[in-house]
Here is the input.
Amino acid sequence: RRLRATNRKFPTMKVIVKWQKEKYDVDVDVADSVEVFRAQLWTLTGVPPERQKIMGFKGGILKDDADLSKLITKDGQSCMLMGTAGELPEKPAEKVVFVEDIPGKVEEINSVGVGLKNLGNTCYMNATFQALRHAKGFTKELLSMNPLLWNSHPQGAFFRAVHEFMGQMERQNGTIVPYNFLEALRTAFPQFREMGRFGYKQQDADECWSQSMSLLHQIMRGTNSSESEKGLIYRSFGLRLQNRYECKEQTDEEPQIDVETVFKLPCHITMDVNYLADGIRLSMEEELEKQSISLGRSAIYSKKQRIARLPKYLTVQFVRFQWRRDVQARTKILRKVNFPLSLDLYDFCSDDLQKELNVVRRTEADIKDEKFNARESSTGETAVKKSRVDAAESMEVDSAESSEKKDESPPAEETSEEKAKRAEDLQRLLADKKSMNCLTGRYSLSAVLTHKGREASSGHYVTWAKDDKGDWYRYDDDTVTLSSAEEVEKLSGGGDWFTAYILLYEAKEPELE
Here is the structure.
């Protein structure tokens, strides 16, 4: 059994490792650290690095700061590993039962969480899964699943690795050294094994996020194509977009409409984009060339997207990296783009979805009116319908996050029949949360994955995330510190400080009480 290294610049030596009755041929890149060598041995033997004693090299027991290039000078060198993979702490007086092993229950989310050790340019992975962990309903449902469910899937090992890793992050305190999960990630996505001059290369956190989501979706969606059976990833993160194409060269041609499923919204950035809503709108409206049936040739079409299904957790990616020929690298767009702590997507929804959202939003407005009138009556003052105006304003993307002005006129009064129909629709929507994961179109910011640096292939990734109490924390690899909403709002870009790259929003529950 051999574990291969792929560094081309430094020599790779074969080391024969003896452990108990086993012998392993390990390909060791002598430019790597002892920590990486220990991770290789952990992968092969199951002996954690902190239990390993490696002997046979010059100087006695191998030290963590040793230079492998001076100790391993020829192929076939031997060493001995001592340590027990199955060694356990002292047995407790009572049998320990993890909550996820109890049917129908899952351990409560550790709201602050743990730090993750950087194993050499792995901040992209650490930041990605720290942010993903804060999709708390998703994490809870994931951990309630049997990790052996998808054993028969060719990539079932990746699901098991994610399940184990997320479970560790929920149960443990302090710092996790994610050797096992890193190896599983690189096995599933070999591009993350790419080597550079000084070891493993930095990777793109968005690539890690997107690839992981896509593979988990493939594994868990099953064979039934109905919406409720499409799997946890779709139910939690899936958006359905309605695309409308209109030919600009043949105005009487019938518009073409299709539907697609995506797991994030892009926010494109130009000199005219100052707010998140501007960038989302730019990404949903464009011109393109496609085949025209009526003209029998390629023609210019306008494409307009609208959201036909909202997810429980909304992912927005700032498209900050672009390829520049002059420097032959993916460089970063540093422009400042403000993003809100609360986001309303009503304007970006299809007409049919807006009608569904209006059922809940108007009911919320009625409840606000009743509360307001009750307060006014108790003071003997004349009640006014101020909350109606508030409701109309909330049905648009907040002008603080969009440079476009909105129509703030209140909705028209309903007849008694319309109110009765709305009450029926409300009950239907509340009972059908599998297909209607966001009942209002409004979201609250849960996590911000940031990047600091000028290029995608370098720099550093850090995540800011909010706990159950509304407190913000900064997750910088193995360092977790208390932060604030004010600090999060400074992550909008415009300089060399950490810049928002991926936003994770959670759907707000309707206020119906």
About this structure: Residues 1-9, 87-111, 223-229, 382-401 have pLDDT under 50 and may be disordered.
